[in-house]
Amino acid sequence: MVTGRRSMMELKKKHKTNTSLDFSNLHEKHLSIQISLDGFSFCIIHKIEKQIEKLKYLPFHGPASTPEKLLQNVESVFKTERHLQKRYGSVNVTHVNQLSELVPKSLFDKEHLRDYLKFSSKTYTNDYIVYDELENHDMVNVYIPFVNVNNFLLERFGSFEYKHFTTILVNNILNTYRYSEHPHMFAHIREDQFELLVIANNNLLFQNSFKFQNKEDFIYYVLFTAEQLKLNPESFEFILAGTINTNSDLYKIAYTYIRKVSLIENRSEFRFPPQINDDSKRRHFTLLNQYS
């Protein structure tokens, strides 16, 4: 698995189009980017008008298999997308990979970052390991970013903030549903993988990522997790985000076995142009919730 780990220089964690899109007053506009092994997505936000001006996903031609290939894919996107050739008032980036681990803040020690990852991910001595703090939730997300891509973006933008995909997902779901009176399970679905979260009693009870090939794999992991946590499929709510809608086989099989199934609601403070439909908002849930 590619990690994008090869470090050309250590990058500090922080401190570091629609043809009618108006590129004047770019200081009032924010660029959010999300990078995975499979593709690149971005959105442009007008911060003053609270308006999403552009939302686009660009799949790579085959998943990146090396750090060099991932960087080549990203560089190709920047060469062809004129919206990415501008300088914005602010930029943030989300890294999507499996090289992360949530740690309770009470157990966290920044001198032992490698120890938190070694049981779930293979690490190397030259890996650049960083962490995000989940504000108000007493958790820290330890992870390995795509360092070579970060270095490229640093040259492009001068400075930007970056976080891990899991940080954005968990933080937004907890902020929205933390005080619900009954258990909730959440699945954020990508092409062949999904993140599963469970919250109850104001706490995150479970978070993990699963690869799947078909709907039977998907429902197996969901129901097995529910069984381990002693959650009754008749009573907990199952909320779906990512690449899914009510016509999806995954939605239909979930509805067969779980009583309360729904799609995540869009609660963004931003206005959307009419061409961005609900399916797109759901697919880009984490990208649209990077900036706040």
The string of secondary-structure elements, in order, is EEEHEEHEEHEHEEEHEHEHH
Q: Strands across the major sheet, in which order?
A: 3-2-1-4-8
End-to-end separation in angstroms reads 32 Å
Strand percentage lies at 25-35%
Mean pLDDT: 90
Number of DSSP helices? 8
Number of distinct beta strands: 13
| Bulk shape | globular
Structural class: alpha/beta
Helix residue percentage: 25-40%
| Major sheet size, sense and barrel closure | 5 strands, mixed
Low-confidence runs: 1-21
Task: Summarize the model shown.
With 292 residues, the protein is α/β, with parallel strands linked by helices. It is 26% helix and 28% strand.
Features:
disordered N terminus; 13 strands; 292 residues; single chain; alpha/beta; globular
